[in-house]
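Changelog-adjacent note: as of this version, every example in the card shows the full chain rather than a window. The one below runs 208 residues end to end.
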Amino acid sequence: MAAASVADRARRPLVVMNAAASGITKRSPYVTRTSYTIAQSVVPLAQWAHKTGSRRVYSLVADYAPGLDGEEWFDRTFKAAGGTIVGSVRTPLSTVDYGAYVQRIKDAKPDAVHVFLPNGQPMVSFMKAWHEKGLGKAGIRFLGGEGWADQDVLAQGGEGLAGIYTAGFYAWSRPGRRTPGSAKRSRRPWAAVSNRTSLRLPPTTAWP
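Full-length structure tokens:
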């Protein structure tokens, strides 16, 4: 987001490859995005949660711009569908132990919890506390946005991530994903690789 002012001063285009906070492109007329926004994964997740029976949801997000964006879009959408946010908490980015937060969620007895955390170790640490406190066994559904099915998170979390519900725009293991061979045949070479890599390829293929 801070780079938007640099693009303004230089009057040069700034292409954002994978940052997903919704307000990024509003910072400058010189900023454009090639990837998704947080709203595009969180809004369908909130709609699906209500449609499939969740009526009371607890919200836990990391206290930074993407987390607040996820909180805003999920809460707004879930409430519009007729659901209730029974509690919410914003955790510092430095958090390494989520035990107290997870206990608070369990005590609130929601139908589900919406969680938005930075990719990697924070997600794994949260799931450790989730299982230790027995929220899954208590029948509380876990709703996670983009990132929870990323390969690096799955590699760290292993079986501890089984049973969660996520919404995202790409997963390497999704059914029907393109293989390198099928992508080559379709002349769309970026279709066979992960989202982080694919975002760098379409602009280059636009040139002869």
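Structural remarks: Residues 115 and 133 are 16 Å apart (CA to CA).
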